[in-house]
Specification:
With 408 residues, the protein is an alpha/beta fold. Helix content is 47%, strand content 14%. It has helices at residues 10-20, 29-42, 61-75, 106-120, 135-138, 142-150, 155-158, 162-169, 176-192, 204-216, 253-262, 265-275, 280-291, 296-312, 314-327, 349-355, 362-370; strands spanning 25-27, 47-52, 79-84, 129-133, 196-200, 223-227, 339-342, 347-348, 374-376, 379-380, 387-388, 391-397, 401-407. A six-stranded mixed β-sheet has the order 1-6-5-2-3-4, sandwiched between helices. A five-stranded mixed β-sheet has the order 7-13-12-9-10, with helices on one face. Helix 11 (253-262) packs across helix 15 (314-327) and helix 14 (296-312) crosses helix 15. A motif ('KMSKS' region) lies at residues 238-242. Belongs to the class-I aminoacyl-tRNA synthetase family. TyrS type 2 subfamily.
Length: 408
């Protein structure tokens, strides 16, 4: 049966530009364009789904890459479904892992989920967000329903997944329950009749399973939109609380501001692309200005003011700037500074000072700390046994020696 084709208006074309900005991949573009056209013609908003497992209580800026895209879709008039994976959290998502992830307990899930939506509402419009828990339809499935669901997807297709394939070849255990995760995530799309599902690039396989299961259940398949994974403050690993390179959206404004200012000048443009609400043309103008001699630190300040202001208000953002500048009042932060990586953390401050080249010996490092001549992110160091954990730090010795140090 031939589906009706709807006219692609200028408004639909503009919506496509908004949706695809900064995305990694949209599958399938032509299908989604027709979904938008149908929505405009019928007045029925699309159902846009994002599922998040409450594996930790905090949401960081990496999560907001996808949340920002959801907000844009809300502003285009569509229904956003913020799905908390309370059921799938008990299975554990194996995406990108080389070993079985231990499932969370019900108590851990409930504790984390209680703060998730409140934090997500700092980005989404709560009045236009449908919040759901996938235990609503997963719990009632029971053993019979689970077996029937499992019959709709093959082991061969499951083994196309890269992390499963690698683990199988390496002889690393794959538990049967891990196969259930993408099935259950896909079944969420069936239960919610999703028109589109969003996720990070590491979720592409799971999102495609949802698309296939919808076909199996006689539904129109969802389109999928994958967003890039935001690098953390170290500029290397994806942002993650476990890696210590994250910026939480509920962190104090001063702390958030300082972390944003600690990122490298190169990484700053990645953050502009994925986090800023400025137009791409505006960002291009900023890039050109830096290439023509503008201090990149000033452009980074604009980014920090925008991001901190979004979550804490403009007054708090300005206070964050004042606090940041006051911490470096004894010397101006240079435009360029050595960038050092210490692969194994935590690491002592005296070793960091030596390996960064800021001092020539251990005794000089110790003397500078004793004389209050060392700062980490603007704060004076008085403890010679201070340990730096994973993250990126601006280390200052005296008034003129600086280094950006990343602890791995």
């Amino acid at each position: 049966m031939t589906q009706k084709t709807y006219p692609v208006t200028d408004r639909v074309k503009e919506s496509m530009r908004v949706v695809t900005r900064g995305c990694d991949e949209l599958l399938v573009e032509r299908e989604f364009e027709q979904k938008l056209a149908r929505s405009e013609a019928t007045g029925i908003p699309l159902r846009i789904k994002l599922g998040l497992d409450p594996t930790a209580p905090d949401i960081h800026l990496g999560h907001t890459v996808v949340l920002n895209k959801l907000r844009q879709l809300q502003d285009l008039g569509h229904t956003v479904i913020f799905l908390i994976g309370d059921f799938t959290s008990m299975i554990g998502d194996p995406s990108g892992r080389n070993s079985t992830r231990p499932p969370l307990t019900r108590e851990q899930i409930e504790a984390n989920a209680s703060t998730y939506y409140a934090q997500a509402s700092m980005v989404l419009d709560p009045e236009r967000t449908e919040i759901r828990y996938n235990s609503e339809w997963c719990d009632p499935l029971g053993a019979r329903g689970m077996i029937q669901l499992a019959s709709r997807y093959t082991v061969a297709r499951m083994m196309e997944r890269e992390d499963f394939t690698q683990r199988f070849r390496q002889g690393v255990a794959i538990s049967v329950h891990e196969f259930l995760y993408p099935l259950m995530q896909g079944y969420d799309s069936v239960a919610l009749k999703a028109d589109m599902e969003l996720g990070g690039t590491d979720q592409k396989f799971n999102l495609l399973v949802g698309r296939e299961l919808q076909r199996e259940y006689g539904q129109e398949p969802q389109c999928i939109l994958t967003m890039p994974l935001l690098e953390g403050t170290d500029g290397v690993e994806k942002m993650s609380k476990s890696k210590g390179n994250y910026i939480g959206i509920s962190e104090p404004a001063n702390e958030m501001f300082g972390k944003l200012m600690s990122i490298s000048d190169t990484l700053m443009w990645r953050y502009y692309e994925l986090l800023s609400f400025r137009s791409l043309d505006d960002i291009a103008v900023l890039k050109a200005a830096v290439e023509q001699g503008r201090n990149p630190r000033d452009v980074k300040v604009e980014l920090a003011l925008e991001i901190v202001g979004r979550f804490h208000g403009n007054d708090a953002a300005q206070q964050g700037l004042s606090n940041f500048e006051s911490r470096f009042r004894d010397g101006a932060i240079p435009d360029d500074m050595p960038e050092i990586t210490v692969p194994q953390g935590p690491v002592g401050i005296l070793k960091v000072l030596r390996e960064s080249g800021l001092v020539s010996s251990g005794s000089e490092a110790q003397r500078n700390v004793e004389q209050a001549g060392v700062r980490v992110d603007g704060e004076r160091v008085s403890d010679k046994s201070l340990m730096l954990h994973k993250g990126t730090f601006i280390i200052q010795v005296g008034k003129r020696k600086f280094a950006r140090v990343t602890v791995g």
